[in-house]
Amino acid sequence: MTTFSLTTSSSPSIAIFPSHKVSRINRNIYSGFTEHMGRCIYGGIYDPGNPNKHLLDSRGFRQDVLEALRPLQVPVFRYPGGNFCATYHWQDGVGPVQDRPARPELAWGNVETNHFGTDEFMQWCQAANAEPYLCLNFGTGTLDEAMAWVEYCNGTKDTYYANLRRQNGHPDPYQVKYWALGNEMWGPWQIEQMTQEAYAERAVQWAKALKLLDPSIQLILCGKEGATSWDYHTLKRCLQPAGLSDLGEERLPLVDMHSIHLYTASHDHYENVTAPLAAERSIEVCSGLIDLAIVENKIPASQKRPTICFDEWNVWSPPRAPGSQGAEEKYTLSDALAVAVWLNVLVRKSRDVGMACIAQSVNVISPLMTTDTGIIRQTIWWPYELFCRFMKGHTVAVHVACEAYAGSTKPDWVRAVKDTPWLDVSATVDDDGWVSVCVVNIHRESDLMTRLGGVDGQKVKVYTITGGHPEVTNMAGTEEVGLKESDWDPDPSQDFAFVFPKCSVTMLRWKMQ
Ligand code: AHR
């Protein structure tokens, strides 16, 4: 929880209360997303045609990509889309590679060779030490096909699709826990766009069958942006009381998480860095809609409350980086600040968010880019890395007092519903007693000397992300925006003041005494 009070004094202050734990952070908020789109799979994580063979392992996986991602301990990767799911038939992508059919791919206008499919993705997740999260085809797919996929991945009995997996060389079940009931089914760009009523009806029927087949799975409902009537309707229809039916049968909860998506962007720095606050309000409203469905549907308190799965989020302007051209956004320092504000939002809202997937993990609107000869860490890599490494355990209470940006926001309604302080802050304490505080100074002209409460007597490690100007990128191959480490001894005679540089992300860390 962060509280903010507006001050007209030129001296901001941040008080951190590490012993006031607000909520447990689910590490799954640092999850990733790999879609068959642009160069994410082919040329990103899987690149067998690359002449620089030293970059590849024996399966054609990019080792430099895996080596970059592994230290982040990305917990989950979503796959195979996104919009790609709506015409994807998983059976095209299993079995001998030479026998797999090439198909027209309608979401992004490509040809899908199916050389990379379910088994390759499972092996890649194992190599990345991450769990898979699969999205079902709610467009041209059928329930039969969806059940067959669950059986192929998780089946342990002597059944057709479990045996097909064994026949393909994979004796052990993959135990895929997370399954999405379609992707953005409300979108006019979808193959088989649906009304909220039609979608909710189908989601209920599929969920019932899928949970009968494998009660261990978690199902993710396809919401919209969190604060829409689609979210209200789908939650209201699909959150149902579990427990014993009239016939004495145990009914499982149909859905475990509610997915929402949002991309933010603006060429204007202040609109860009304040836009993620729209996500914060969307989470708050969506959380209220979950509660409303619980109340209206009389869900018993003993039933686990569904969380929000923010399974696509990032800075992305489709006109600037069109999906049909691979959506290779070139991220700026301003975007790095925006991503840090996004991550602050996810930490502040850790009570409600059970999973979040940065979209995407390689090449497509991504912190990490590949070339034929290596990788480039974009500006937004650095806040993502810092949060994955350090912002875990519990969210803790913070009070921020400073002046606020008062100009236009994007969307416009952010201005009406959120404060937009110059310093955007979240704080955590991990299970070893390390306190981490992320402070984003969104001001493009002013360093902000800030009094810190809660750091008395601490030896503080400082991690700073900044660069020459808000528009600078790393895409020329030089690291214009990187990570600098230093130490700070808070000085009581200086009122424990720390200067947060203009246009920067700073993480302060200390071990509680
Ligand atoms: O992540 C890129 C695309 O954005 C996804 O395929 C889709 O779900 C969203 O519209």
UniProtKB/TrEMBL annotation:
A Pfam family this chain is assigned to: ASD1_dom
Coiled coil: none
Stretches assigned to the Alpha-L-arabinofuranosidase C-terminal domain: 311-504
Biological processes, Gene Ontology terms: arabinan catabolic process; L-arabinose metabolic process
Assigned EC number: 3.2.1.55
Listed pathway(s): Glycan metabolism; L-arabinan degradation
Catalysed reaction, written as an equation: Hydrolysis of terminal non-reducing alpha-L-arabinofuranoside residues in alpha-L-arabinosides
GO molecular function: alpha-L-arabinofuranosidase activity
Keyword Hydrolase attributed: yes
Domain of life: Eukaryota
Record keywords, A-Z: Carbohydrate metabolism, Glycosidase, Hydrolase
Entry's transmembrane regions: none
PANTHER family, sorted: ALPHA-L-ARABINOFURANOSIDASE C, ALPHA-L-ARABINOFURANOSIDASE C-RELATED
Family: Belongs to the glycosyl hydrolase 51 family.
Function: Alpha-L-arabinofuranosidase involved in the degradation of arabinoxylan, a major component of plant hemicellulose. Acts only on small linear 1,5-alpha-linked L-arabinofuranosyl oligosaccharides.
Stated name of the protein: non-reducing end alpha-L-arabinofuranosidase
Species: Capronia epimyces CBS 606.96
The organism's taxonomic lineage, starting at the top: Eukaryota, Fungi, Dikarya, Ascomycota, Pezizomycotina
